[in-house]
Amino acid sequence: MPPTDDIHPSTPPEHEVPNVEDHEDTYERGVLGSDACPEGNKAAKRKRAEDQVLEKVLKTQEELVRISKERMNSVKAAMQAASDEHIMAMDLSGMDEETKSYWQKKRRAILDRPE
Length: 115
Prior knowledge:
Helix content is 70%, strand content 0%. By secondary structure, it is mainly alpha-helical.
């Protein structure tokens, strides 16, 4: 019989052949038994370790923010105290009435401020 186009090859076309390389790692791992414990346990341990590290980092950052706020408040208080001292020490005797009135109001505000 002469060969015809109707003859089917003994192997399926390339697009129907599963790619063995895609599943090779999974197959080798399962066959060789290279993993002492299931992948889920390792992943869970790694996740717990990462969570602990992240928790420590977060606590450290929170502490740094707290310290920064305290320092900022301290600097603000020091600047305010220096400004108040300057205003209270000003000599108002040589000033015109408008300027003198302005600085007297500033002094009164400082004196009326709660400690």
